[in-house]
Amino acid sequence: MPPLARLTTAALMAALMAILLPSQTFAWGPNAERLIANRAVETLPPDLRPFFEANRDFITRHAADPVESTGKSPATERHDQVLYLDHYGKYPFDALPRKYEAAVSKFGRLKLEASGVLPWQIGVYSARLTEAMRAGNWEPARLIAAQLAGYVAQAFDPFNTTENYDGRALGQPGVNLRFNTSLVDRYSLFFPLRPNDAVFIEDPTDHAFEDCLTAHSWLEIVLVADRRARSGLSDYTDEYYDRFYSQAGATLIRQLSDAATDVGSYWLTCWINAGRPAPPR
After folding, report:
1. Torsion angle (degrees, nearest 10) of CA 109, 115, 121, 123
2. What is the pLDDT of residue 19?
3. How far is CA 101 from CA 66, 145, 205, 279, in A?
4. Interval 197-208: pLDDT, tens
5. Which of 10, 84, 92, 228 has the smallest C-beta neighbourhood within 10 Å, fewest atoms?
6. What confidence score (pLDDT) does residue 65 get?
7. What region does 174 belong to: left with phi over 0, alpha with psi -120 to 50, or beta?
8. Contacting residues for 278 by C-beta, under 8 A, at least 6 apart
């Protein structure tokens, strides 16, 4: 194919992707992503933790800026951060193969990417971090670790797993931002986050699918809590947020805590798979 034709085809594909995947504010507000990455450092064992402690500010900052840190376009980054499970039937969504090649063969690359590729993206960045650590490239490793943390965190937001990502289809527009941004911004100083120690992950991509499934299972609970919190109120007042937090706060805290555990577990897994190289001190 001539270069110009290839360029034209790529441009058309990018435009079509932007149409097929609705415009979406990235889930988990920046404060939530920073909180997850920050607490993930505490889950690491003594041999690995000092490197992440030394780079905590850098990693925490870049975990929350996927477009800037990866250099991707917003349209590309959008489909890298979601997995619309409800495009594939009903729970447990067995119609979607977990092997990327098998999923492409079954659904086609365009439909697959339009529905989101988050678990595979986590697998890709896990491999990149492993290779950087194995090669002793610790400077790029800290940026890849931050990018991986951002993607893993997204797998824990229920609204990243559904095409009704903003609640609009159910008459609850903006519920995603009220849950994953406003509640965090308002109440995070009181969150009793208790991430567990990081553990080795056998299959990073398959594990990411499980995280998305778990997040999706909380979706209806959050939607019901939002409706109940708004009952009798004309706007999203302080009273609304107090009600919403009292009903959905436990789910939010659980997902943030588990996300921090998993981010640390992914970092640990990459390090183990790299042969446990000694980080710079």
Report:
1. -90
2. 36
3. 25, 25, 13, 34
4. 999 999 999 999
5. 10
6. 80
7. left
8. none
